[in-house]
Design goal:
Blueprint lengths: L9 H38 L5 E4 L5 H14 L2 E7 L3 H13 L3 E15 L2 E14 L3 H37 L1
Parallel strand pairs: 1-2
Antiparallel strand pairs: 2-4, 3-4
Helix pairs in contact: 2-3
Amino acid sequence: FFFFFKQKTAYEIAQRLVGSEMCIRDRYQRRVHGDYMDYKKKEERKKGTPDSKVTITARRNAQFYVFISKQALTNFETIELHALGTAMSTCVAAADQLVKFGYAILKKTLIAPVEVQGYNGMISKPKMVLVLSRSAGFKTMIDKSTAVKKENEAAFVALNAQKQSLNIRSKHEFN
């Protein structure tokens, strides 16, 4: 008997290999570089010089970086948002929201090509750095948002307690 197998095209083979290889590479790089960055940050904390640099990636949305930037602005007068390649749109969106809602003032915008190590050697990518400073009303805005958050949490606790008491009453009524 002869068995005939469908011959796979290079595209089909490459698609599978690239998908699995990318998964393995990303997992490896996150683990190795992530541990290194955590180590580097711990060393900086030991020195007593915290970092006012926020590194933005394309993996998270702009709201996440708005939150992180607000935290950084509570500790520093100015912060730098750094983005590379496709993360530049996320960087601009986060900075736009911070400026639009009055948390920060855009001081400086820097865009330049940089050489980074790619899988097949050195490649050129655009890098963006946005320098933001705290707005005059930043402290009052943060205090207001903290007060609203506490009110919402208290209302949520009260609502859960009310639901709990209704559930207990309904159980007793059926027995």
